[in-house]
Amino acid sequence: MKELIIHADKVSYEVTKKTKLAEEISEEEKSGEMKDVLWVRIAVEKGDEGDIDSLVEQAVKDIEEVSGQVKTKNIMLYPYAHLLMGSKPSKPEAALELLKRMGGKLKEDGFTVMRSPFGWYKKFTVECKGHPLSELSRVFVAEETEGETAVAAMEKKREPQVSVEVSESVKAEAKMANRFYIMDTNGELVDIDKFDFKGHESLKKFATYETQKLRAYEREPPHIKIMQEQELVDYEPGSDAGNFRFYPKGRLIKKLLERSITDFCVDYGAMEVETPIMYDFEHPSLKKYLNRFPARQYVVLSEDKEFFLRFAACFGQFLMTHDMVFSYKQLPMRMFELTKYSFRREQTGELAGLKRLRGFTMPDMHGILKDMEQAKTELEQQLEISMEWLSYVGLLGGSEVGFRILTEFYEKNKEWYKSLVKKIGKPILVELFDERYAYFVTKFEFNFVDAMEKASALTTVQIDVENADTYDIWYVDEEGKKKRPLFTHASISGSIERVMYALLEKEAMKMAKGEKAMLPLWLSPTQVRILPISEKHLEFAQEVLSQLGENVRADIDDSAETLGKKIRNAQKEWIPYIAVIGDNEVESGKITVNIRETGEKKEMNGIELRAIIEEKTNDMPFEKLSLPKLISKRPTFRG
Predict the structure, then answer these.
(1) What percent of the chain shows pLDDT beyond 90?
(2) Nearest Cα to 427, choosing from 199, 603, 621, 628?
(3) Which of 183-192, 209-218, 279-288 is predicted with the least confidence, judged by mean pLDDT?
(4) How far is Cα of residue 16 from the mean position of the Cα atoms in its chain?
């Protein structure tokens, strides 16, 4: 059984149409509304039919625990089969029985319960509270077990969804007063409901996503199907959820993105370092920092100590900075690490393919600054290189910008923010918060808005006013005195996996409009596919492959398929250049090239095609594809 729990200001529903599974209901039950409510969406799986008692007991106990945390006694139970991506639903009568018994048990325990009708199509509205505990997911499993009660067995199998320890940062964020605005290109703040979003439809989607806090996907994001069909990335059943296997083509794309963002940061002046992935919970500086960062940790036991797997490079870089000796003359100074990997134990319901994972690669850079003016200059420069990098990978146009700002800091720096929005060149979303709940006073994010109108942060930069104290870091100022620096936390790209998600979602949106999907040429695993019509043309195909050289990723489809099938297979892989070789090409020494981007067909030789590709990918990183050049020699990774 799967649950998605939303703590909402208000939930209402109205039935629209009955299905063949619909239960009989009264006129009164055809609509309903509750305020300050836990909206519990429930999907019952086929394997749940064996022990409904254990499921009811587990689920009711969990709902009651959550209700105690968020201080509400109102519960709406809502059947919702769409939570079962990749699973089979139970028999209708089993699901209905479970819902009825859950409602009855909750009422016995003093809760006000409403159950929306089973088997009816419904339209609904929801106003989510928006605090860190307002969206929770659950997975329960029913199973008969010899030698122990079913409930005890399920408690062993149940995956914990929320850390036992909730950081002070999460608690403070849940209570903080905040307000959302749109800042127009003149730097003026406009109430969201008064802003004219005409021509800014993507910004409206982003603003809706941020203010309503509806994070969970109701169906599978399209990039998941693409990443599997293209044999790029796939789920790893032998690991924890949110950790993926990368096939050769996916690993190539990931490696190129890693090289690109590393070059950007090093060229910007960052010193590249490497730090451990595991840290001691009891280290005094780390213990304090953990309480100021809203992330859930993986725990590793070693002898008599508990360690956590890092969720960012902050720990290692700040500990390294603590041991360094430097003065104001070296500032600003920057440190960079491509963290392979960082780990955050996100809730199961929050995981969504490559958008949100538990193990990910995060390019993490920290600036060390002598004062606030230098920190503001650093953030401004990082805004510029963020826009440059996002443009470089083709994602700037699909991104919307959000700033989160301490109100007091905003009031002191209004003119500066006006200058930033002018650099961005379009309206942005602004969130003002009255009390600082974490270590930063301001941050910005470039958010990609995907095919299902969900937003995901790519670039993010923060000004940190706290961690020099936490880690006891200081520098020598102009007067020879010790002084605390400020920091910027910057991920110019965001996680590499999320960049891949955004690239694939962008192409999914193009396909939905009937346009051809295509990765940027420098990221295309195969840039040229050579198609000999028959075996007698294979020798010339090998000659063309040689002409293309070592800096073009090319292969040969030497399979026994027809030419039409070979072309269709190459098109399914989004290959930019398809070169057909038959008798005419062998005789003329030239190849007929189908160009995916323009739809043109051109005749040229291999050397000319190589020159075109090298010109288009000039100054971009290159890696060889670790697959055999001949298609017939390649395995199928997804049977």
Answers:
(1) 68
(2) 199
(3) 209-218
(4) 34
Closest residue by Cα to residue 55 from 151, 137, 162: 151
Q: Which two tokens stand for residue 283?
A: 């280290």
Inter-residue contact 146 to 41 (CB < 8 Å) = no
pLDDT tens by residue, 527-551: 999 999 999 999 999 999 999 999 9
Q: Phi/psi of residue 463, each to 5°?
A: -100, 120
Give the CATH superfamily of 521-633. Anticodon-binding domain (3.40.50.800)
Q: Among 621, 112, 632, 98, which Cα is nearest to 389's?
A: 621
Beta strands in 149-265 (DSSP E): 178-183, 189-191, 233-235, 244-246
Rounded distance between C-alpha atoms, residue 551 and residue 597, angstroms: 20
Q: Cα–Cα distance between 593 and 609 in angstroms, integer?
A: 9
The chain-wide mean pLDDT, for the chain, equals 88
> Mean pLDDT: which of 287-301, 350-364, 396-410 is highest?
396-410
Q: What is the value of pTM for the model shown?
A: 0.76
**Using CA atoms, how far apart are residues 526 and 529, in angstroms rounded to an integer?**
7
Helix pair 496-512, 222-229: axis angle to 10 deg: 100
Check whether the bond before 332 is cis (ω within 30° of 0): yes
Q: How far apart are CA 561 and CA 572, in angstroms?
A: 15
Length of the chain: 639
Q: What is the CATH number assigned to the segment(s) 178-507?
A: 3.30.930.10
E strand or H helix at 467, and its extent? helix 467-470
- φ/ψ of 462, rounded to 5, equals -130, 150
Q: What is the pLDDT averaged over residues 146-159?
A: 34
Please check whether residue 201 is in contact with residue 160, taking contact to mean a CB–CB distance below 8 angstroms. Answer: no
If phi over 0 gives left and psi between -120 and 50 gives alpha, with beta otherwise, what is residue 87?
Answer: beta
> How far apart, in whole angstroms, are the C-alpha atoms of residue 626 and residue 212?
44
Q: Token match 């961005």: residue?
A: 424
For 394: left if phi > 0, alpha if psi spans -120 to 50, otherwise beta; the answer is: left
Closest by Cα among 13, 1, 216 to 102: 1
Using 50, 70 and 90 to split pLDDT, how confident is the model at 87?
Answer: low
Q: Where in the chain are the domains? A: 2-161, 178-507, 521-633
Q: What is the pLDDT of residues 325-354, one digit of tens each?
A: 999 999 999 999 999 889 988 876 678 899
Q: Strand 554-556: give its sheet, edge to edge.
A: 554-556, 528-532, 577-581, 591-595, 601-604
Q: Which two tokens stand for residue 564?
A: 């039409």
pLDDT of residue 83: 58
CA-derived radius of gyration, the chain = 28
Helix, strand, or coil (residue 68):
helix
Q: Which residue has the tokens 């001691």?
A: 280
- Asked whether 77 and 42 are in contact (CB, 8 A), the reply is yes
Q: Which two tokens stand for residue 419?
A: 């200058």
Of the candidates 33, 4, 9, the one whose C-alpha atom is nearest the C-alpha of residue 131 is 9
| Token pair recorded at residue 488 | 């910027």
d(CA 594, CA 607) in angstroms, rounded, equals 16
**Binning pLDDT at 50, 70 and 90, where does residue 89 land?**
confident
Contacts of 137 (CB under 8 A, 6+ apart): 2, 3, 4, 5, 161, 216, 347, 348, 349, 350
Do the domains 521-633 and 178-507 match in fold?
A: no
pLDDT digits (tens, 9 = 90+) for 478-513: 999 999 999 999 999 999 999 999 999 999 999 999
Q: Which fold has domain 2-161?
A: D-tyrosyl-trna(Tyr) Deacylase; Chain: A; (3.50.80)
Cα torsion angle, 223, 224, 226, 231, sign: positive
